[in-house]
Amino acid sequence: MSTIDLRGVVEEAERAVAAQRRGEGYARFAERDGGSDRDGGPDLYGTADAVGVFATLGRLDPDPAVRDRLAAAVVAFQQPDGRFVDDSHGVLHSTATAVGALHLLGRPAPPPAFLEPLFQPSAVEPFLDGLDWADPWLASHDAAGLLAVAVMTGLDRPGFVTAYLSWLDAHVDPATGLWPRGGIGRLEEWPGLFGNLGCSFHLHFLLRHLGRPIPHAPQVVDTCLELASGTRAVFDAGSWGYPQLDWAYSLSRASRQSGHRVAETQEALRALARALQHDLEHDGAPSVTGSHDLHTVGAVTALVAELSAALGDELRTGADLTPTTDLRPFI
User: Fold this and answer.
1) Rounded CA Rg of the chain
2) CB neighbours (10 Å) of residue 34?
3) InterPro entries from the entry (predicted)?
4) Mind listing the domains of the chain with CATH numbers?
5) Rounded to the nearest 5°, which phi and psi values hold at 236?
6) How many Å apart are CA 197 and CA 179, to the nearest integer?
7) CA angle (119 as vertex; 116, 125 as ends), nearest 5
8) Is the predicted pLDDT of residue 238 greater than 80, yes or no?
9) What is residue 293's three-state secondary structure?
10) Where are the alpha helices (DSSP H) in the chain?
């Protein structure tokens, strides 16, 4: 069996991050995009994603002074009430992203005071019930974001995590292993069933961070394999990024946990790695990694780390990679 060479992703990720440094922070976008605020200056997601790439590649500088400066660059985007704001995502996603970057740096996040009323057990059900689960992928940004911020800052009140996990247990769909029960989309629609997977990915690795198993793991495996053959989102999406990461993580970890359809899972992950290598060879590393956008670079780098964890010596990456999903509870 020939080795699958994905070194181009790692090399391009390093180049893109270095090119988009601005002072002590990083620009998400490499250039101004007509009509939008992509002016190449430092921003929250560029800086946080650079930290994530460094952590995935094992290249976070151990020097405390360097980490302090990076942490200060992240905190510069915090508002007086503790929230982090970025036009590209909602407040909870932005705040969880910032707190996650600080977590990787080993630096405490300034308390997000605006969330403290939600860190009570009595607030869990109204908060989660009030999310727009008709769009589960988007709802998961807030559902996972609040719990992730609570556990990373340690500001949750006694009983909060238990109440949160109880709600999630009660609202997972046992037939697919995905969220939310009663709101599972159709395979042939977009995002449809894949939107449920995108939602559930955020919750799967948060649960694992808390030492909890993925619920209904065999059903998750079955659903992921069905999505690979029944949609274009995995193998024929036209671009690389979070959809493939979401799929690869949930499939690999659920199969590993349950022992369900292991050979098929490994072959599907191997096929994805080969498809990535094909596009690297034919389209070039800048195109495949989305190197104009560090948020996409972070996703593709995390995907290669996840594939490396699953396939081991079958892959050449040129680095000792650690899936960022194993290092923090939110991405």
Assistant:
1) 19
2) 6
3) Terpenoid_cyclase/PrenylTrfase (IPR008930)
4) 4-326 (1.50.10)
5) -140, 45
6) 8
7) 130
8) yes
9) strand
10) 7-19, 44-57, 64-75, 91-105, 121-129, 136-153, 160-170, 192-209, 217-230, 242-258, 262-283, 285-289, 294-311
Tokens of 169: 């247990």
All residues at 6 or more sequence positions from 122 whose CB lies less than 8 Å from its CB, including other chains:
none
Of 277, 296, 240, 323, nearest in space to 20 by CA? 296
C-alpha to C-alpha distance for 185 and 192, rounded to whole angstroms: 4
Q: Alpha carbon of 147 to those of 29, 153, 208: distances in Å? A: 29, 10, 13
Q: Bridge-partner residues for 78, per DSSP?
A: 84
Which pair of structure tokens corresponds to residue 48? Answer: 């946080």
Q: What is the 3-state secondary structure (H, E, C) of 143-165?
A: HHHHHHHHHHHCCCCCCHHHHHH
Paired residues of 54 in beta bridges: none
Count of C-beta atoms within a 10 Å radius of residue 137: 20
Enumerate residues 6+ apart whose C-beta is below 8 A from 219.
174, 175, 176, 177
Please name the residue that has the structure tokens 């195109």. Answer: 287
**d(Cα 261, Cα 255) in Å, to the nearest integer?**
7
pLDDT attached to residue 41 = 86
d(CA 329, CA 148): 6
Q: How far apart are the first and last CA of the chain?
A: 33
Rounded to whole angstroms, how far apart are CA atoms 329 and 180? 20
pLDDT digits (tens, 9 = 90+) for 107-155: 999 999 999 999 999 999 999 999 999 999 999 999 999 999 999 999 9
Q: Residue 68 carries which side chain, given as an amino acid letter?
A: D
293 - beta bridge partners? 29
Q: Which of 39, 49, 40, 43 is nearest to 13 (CA)?
A: 49
292, 29 contact by CB (below 8 A): yes
